[in-house]
Amino acid sequence: MNRQRFEPPIVRTASDIKRVLTQLEPHSRLNMKLDDVVLMADMPGTDTDSRGRMFRVSARTKTHSPRDILLEGFKVIKQREDMAAKAIEQELPVAVNDKEMKPPPVIAEDGFISIDPIISRMLGGYRSGCFIQWNLADGFTYRYDIFSHRLTRFETEKREE
């Protein structure tokens, strides 16, 4: 096997980002909905079966495009964000030393999600909330919204050290 096929893409320019995002194009052939696949096999019985019966096994499977996989992951993230916002609204203040205080949110919005390595391996970027991002050397950060299939660019905030 060719090792380069398993390496993440190198993203240095905005055109590199556009190139890797072509595999997430909603109307491309790669991301079209496919029919369910029906698999059938004749399998021999166990060794204890003296007659050697054959059993027919069938299963329906669905194929998922890379876009479908990422969309499912981002829907989970969006649900977490909505639940965290709802929990903050509904939390009642607690009196501590005669001061009203709100407890911190219980639901963690950020953290490792199973789609994070897929994003870095497939797109060469990273996840930030509900977006895929790239910080490039040109001083800009590029943010991709998978739901609207929109790429935006904004200046990278410079950190003072």
Write the layout of secondary structure elements.
Blueprint: H1 14-21, E1 37-44, E2 54-61, H2 66-90, E3 94-96, E4 99-101, H3 116-123, E5 126-128, E6 131-135, E7 140-145, E8 150-155
Antiparallel strand pairs: 1-2, 3-4, 5-6, 6-7, 7-8
Describe this structure in words.
With 161 residues, the protein is of the alpha+beta class. It has one domain. The protein is 25% helix and 26% strand. The chain has helices spanning 14-21, 66-90, 116-123, and strands spanning 37-44, 54-61, 94-96, 99-101, 126-128, 131-135, 140-145, 150-155. The strands form three sheets. Strands 5-6-7-8 form a four-stranded antiparallel β-sheet.
Key phrases:
161 residues, alpha+beta, 3 helices, flat
How is the main sheet built? 4 strands, antiparallel
Tell me the quaternary state: single chain
Helix/strand structural class: alpha+beta
Count of domain modules: 1
Radius of gyration: 24 Å
Low-confidence stretches: none
Distance between the termini: 45 Å
SS field, number of helical segments: 3
What is the total tally of β strands? 8
Order of helices and strands: HEEHEEHEEEE
Average pLDDT level: 81
Query: Taking strands numbered 1, 2, ... along the chain, how are they ordered across the largest sheet?
Result: 5-6-7-8
Helix content: 25-40%
Determine the strand fraction and express it as a percent band.
Answer: 25-35%
